[in-house]
Amino acid sequence: SFAYFTIKDRLPQILTRVIDTLHRHKSQFFEEHGEKGVEAEKRAISFLSKLRNELQTDKPVTPLEDELPDAVLWNQYLDYQRNLSNGNGEPSWFQSPWLYVECYMYRRIHAALAQNPPIDNFDVFKEGKAQNFFESQEAVTALCTYFQELLKNIKDLDEKQLQEELFKLLQVSLWGNKCDLSFSAGEDSSQKSNPLQSLENLIPYILVNDMEKLWSLLVNARKRNTEKSNVRVDIILDNAGFELVNDLVLADFLLSSKLVDEVHFHGKSIPWYVSDTTKHDFNWTIKQLQSVNHMWMSRCGINWEGNLKKGVWVYHDHMFWTLPHDFSSMAEVAPDLYADLQKSNLLLFKGDLNYRKLTGDRKWEYTVPFHQALNKFHPSPLCSLRTLKSDTQVGLKPGQGEQIQASEPEWMVSGKYGVVQFDAGL
Q1: Which residues on neighbouring strands pair with residue 423, listed in sequence order?
Q2: Do 123 and 276 contact (CB within 8 A), yes or no?
Q3: What are the TM regions of this chain, as residue ranges (predicted)?
Q4: Residue 84: is its pLDDT beyond 80?
Q5: Per-residue pLDDT tens for 378-399?
């Protein structure tokens, strides 16, 4: 299975890169922290080398031994996996659900650093994320320029034109999800060309296209809106770098077009899946844009910082996003987060990992309705913007999946296809 290939080949590659990154920063750790920094680096590397060995030799998954706030939940989840195996031995790297062991690896990478001060705040993936951003400069420039030109006339657009622009930016945000460093095991995955130029050609590759439903939801929310209640959209972020810039442009468009009053962003509280957005990445990206010597890019950065200061943009992170649980258990495991998401008019879930967690990462029949696969996870109307990089997909028309499968056996994992898949909730 694709899961087997991921655990056997991709995850050890990612661990090797992490170890290499720490090696390369040895002198920096020494400059900043003296011998203590070098000792911490050695301990972290030894911890990670042991982890790589456990993975490659299919050892049992062990309980977390750190004191971090989520350790108890992780260890409870391991017990839950043990019970699932019905006494067929301990859950191990190759005998467990893919989603679980993959999340577990990233949590163990975090522990390797968190348990080794003074380098406990070092993000081993930061360089890759920054590189992705800088290598996508041309695409970022094109998008910021397009967007700032659009803003000049946004007040004059009629409803049809607004809808067209929204659909364009939703597609840019969708295809930006191709730039994923955990998928390429950290290899270059930057966006080189103007993302707006290829949208027309990519429409046939959107397997489920519910953009019309998003539009009517937003327009109706706006009409129903009274002075008391703001229209709120939440974006559950995926990758930093180019994809994040797409998401920020989409969020700015939603505000500037007066379709919504506030946008809430949800990122990861620890470095995750190589390129996932943390608070540091979020702030760093806005700062980078501000300081670029390009009028429209820096204008975007300045406006976005202004949105944060005014409180019309809000950034959150919550430990739940980096737990192994799928989202159907959020109401039970993280009731505070679930209650917050219930305040939203629309939740936009970016990317493949969020899709896997929405649908429980099961091998569904392609035609199973999205609503059913969500397994009672309905805090608010929600939509997945995702390019397919794992073999889980629901909500297709009869025969649609089989037809593509016949000519493209790798269609579910190549990142070539995407969905804009909506569920209205209860």
Answers
A1: 382
A2: no
A3: none
A4: yes
A5: 999 999 999 999 999 999 999 9
Answer whether 125's CB lies under 8 Å from 94's CB.
no
DSSP 8-state secondary structure symbol assigned to residue 62? P
Instruction: State which amino acid sits at residue 408.
Output: E
Scored b (16 or more CB within 10 A) or e, 309-348 reads eeebbeeebbbbbbbbbbbbbbbebbeebbebbeebbbbb
pLDDT at 228: 65
What is the mean pLDDT of the segment spanning 211-219?
97
- How far apart are the C-alpha atoms of 310 and 312, rounded to whole Å? 6
Cβ-contact 71, 108 below 8 angstroms = no
pLDDT tens string 225-246: 766 689 999 999 999 999 999 9
Quote the pLDDT of residue 180: 66
Contact yes or no for 93/54 (Cβ under 8 A) = yes
Digit-coded pLDDT (tens) for 336-355: 999 999 999 999 999 999 99
As a whole number of angstroms, the distance between CA 397 and CA 207 comes to 9
Rounded to 10 degrees, what is the CA torsion of 174, 178, 183, 186?
-130
How many helices and strands (H and E) does the chain possess?
A: 19, 7
User: If you count them, how many residues does the chain have?
Assistant: 426
DSSP state of 245: H
- Closest listed residue to residue 129, CA positions, set 292, 27, 266, 272: 272
